[in-house]
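Input/output pair, single chain:
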Amino acid sequence: MTATFQPIINLDTGEVAAYEVLGRGCHPDLPINPKHLFHIAASVGLEAELSQLFIMKALEIASQHRDFPPLFLNTHPAEIEDPDLPKMIGRLLGISPHTRIVLEFHEAVLDDVVRIARLRKEFAQLGVKLAYDDFGGGRARIRELGDVPPDYLKFDIGLVSGIDKAPTSRVRLISGLVTTARDLNILTIAEGIETQAEADICSDLGFAYGQGYLFGHPKPIDQI
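Output:
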């Protein structure tokens, strides 16, 4: 397996602030797409192990680059149920101790506020930050923002796509959510930006960062 890197951009400066790492298969007899790989892993109950392999590969690649920006690494819901997840992440950090990482939690795993609060505390002790991914794609998760605020909040592509042509009501809703996040000291990321018009609106609304094909497709590290 290997990994590709997609930039996350500071909307004020236009500079690369971080990279999201996206795993890819490279075995000739297996799919490249990670969704298909996870489907295979699910059939044998190994989703968490596959996710950890992707994280390990990302850190192995990053270990060769000392001045690399922070890496956003996806987790799988199956991992969140493992009480030893922080210990596992701590061991993997030994592969590249100079690399700063942000773990992305999908909104589907945020029901257990007590568990997420414990994980956030243990990750903070490791110097690992936390992001809630796909915010607004399912449930809004307003309670979780108040009870266990993450370091970063990634707004779902469904909210961001076409925002320059969206009804005023949607724009006002997003503006209010961004303001609420900022008041909670949460850094906001607009996902799925594909046009300059979308980027301009997101910047005007107060998003700190943007991610999407406008800024770059996922690429191997030697192409960035």
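The first strand starts at residue 2 and ends at 10. The mean pLDDT is 91.
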